[in-house]
Amino acid sequence: MTVTFDISVSLDGYIAGPDQGAEHPLGRGGEQLHEWVVRLASWRESHGLEGGETDTPSDAIMREAATGAGAVIMGRNMFSPTRGPWEGDWRGWWGDEPPFHVPVYVLTHHAREPLEMAGGTTFHFVTDGPEAALEAARSAAGEQRVSIGGGAQTVQQYLRLGAVDEFQLHVVPVFLGGGERLFVDMPELAIERVRVVDTPQVTHMKYRVVR
Amino acid sequence: MTVTFDISVSLDGYIAGPDQGAEHPLGRGGEQLHEWVVRLASWRESHGLEGGETDTPSDAIMREAATGAGAVIMGRNMFSPTRGPWEGDWRGWWGDEPPFHVPVYVLTHHAREPLEMAGGTTFHFVTDGPEAALEAARSAAGEQRVSIGGGAQTVQQYLRLGAVDEFQLHVVPVFLGGGERLFVDMPELAIERVRVVDTPQVTHMKYRVVR
Q: Across the strands, what pairs with B180?
């Protein structure tokens, strides 16, 4: 029943580079934040692909992060490059079979019917705020975790609500110089380090919120 | 002849809390960033004190950071809580015998005579910019390192000038929620991780700038 998030961040604190949009879903330079993960066997497996690296501690860490969540919450901006009322038939960045395989609650100001995708992912569009989305996600997740997928504003909302139990930063040694900052106007939260695992490509830093 | 900096930073990216000034030299909550260091034998030794912890890897890391610098550069705001033309006889936050024991170049817009302190520290006030300060510091340091002491704006200036060779962040698991952000408008610098050493109180993350 815990609420967690896992997110890649540059050393200067961004989870996406400047000029995010349809042309640059991760902003300029943002793809550098994900180079470490797309090579991993665990990441490829969760995306229906074979092969990949297993000889790094990052593989087990990613496997742990990618499994055990019974529901996911994400912001509208993570789901779609468009803003405002829904037009067309945008179904997310992830193709016909998204890698979530559980119900995904998308925070939006604009109502839309649920989107059932292949492989167990259904996108639900929640218009009555982050607390309502959390309640629905908890209910869907049962005994499993609720994972906050992102982006930064969504992570910040749940940290401010005091709803996050554990989180992991995947710190990539690069300066993006601008973009979407992960931590803005944080509350005064007491946290303690759970574990830090270091590799040349990325440092995995896991924390627990102290209550 | 390398140029380095070593700085404690909160998980949300601040090197000092909100409302920095004479009453709160480190900003509200900022003292939490330094609790790990003031307990160490190496820190106490560099401040002329006895005792302290030696049974943590942080002690050797701090000893390394505190030695081998032949000159230090710091911003006016790190030296003094006042702004504008010099008034009175402010001699820094560090008492009669500051812990630097080498020439310290203070970046300021306002000329002032050098201040010779006990223990080998002399504060030089440099009014012709960061490059001039770096040249003077390099010359004074000889074969030894030049250490950028802080604060954030000074660190940013030297990163933007491409003058920094190596740096170490001491990441403390706390959210300050505001204050002086370390990395703002960074250049697109390629960096690589040198070493990460983890303890429950602080994670030491060392990087090298790739040229």
A: B16
Q: So what's the pLDDT on residue A197? A: 97
Residue B40: CA count within 13 A, CB half-sphere: 20
Tell whether B210 is within 8 A of chain A (Cβ).
Answer: no
The reply to whether residue B207 touches residue A29, judged by beta carbons under 8 angstroms, is no
The torsion angle over the Cα atoms of residues B118, B119, B125 and B130, rounded to 10 degrees, is: -170
d(CA A63, CA A46): 8
Measured distance CA(A97)–CA(A77) in Å, rounded: 20
Percent of chain A whose pLDDT exceeds 90: 87
Q: How crowded is residue B166: how many other Cβ atoms within 10 Å of its Cβ?
A: 16
Question: How far apart are alpha carbons A100 and A98 in whole angstroms?
Answer: 6
Q: What letter does residue B165 receive in the DSSP assignment?
A: -
The DSSP secondary-structure symbol of B204 reads E
Tell me which residue in B11, B174, B188 faces A177 most closely, judged by beta carbons.
B188
CA distance A12 to B105: 26
Give the ipTM of the model, two decimals please: 0.92
How far is Cα A198 from Cα B2, in angstroms, rounded to an integer? 25
Report CB contact under 8 Å: B176, A188.
Answer: yes
Contact list in A for residue B171 (CB cut-off 8 A) is 205
Q: How confident is the model at residue B188 (pLDDT cuts 50, 70, 90)?
A: confident
Name the residue facing B29 among A171, A177, A188 (closest C-beta): A188
Q: Which residue has the tokens 């501690």?
A: A57
Q: Of chain B residues 1-40, which have a CB less than 8 A from chain A? A: 11-13, 29
Q: Do the Cβ atoms of A13 and B183 come within 8 Å?
A: yes
Contact A176, A24 (CB under 8 A): no
Interface A-B: count of C-beta contacts within 8 A: 73
**Whole-number Å distance between alpha carbons of B42 and B61:** 9
Taking residues B174-202, report their average pLDDT: 93
**Cβ-contact A33, A177 below 8 angstroms:** no
Q: Do residues A6 and A14 touch, judged by C-beta distance below 8 A? A: no
In whole angstroms, what is the distance from residue B91 CA to residue A147 CA?
Answer: 52
Question: Residue B102: which pLDDT band, with cuts at 50, 70 and 90?
Answer: very high
Nearest to B169, CA basis, from B208, B135, B142:
B208
A68 touching B (Cβ < 8 Å): no
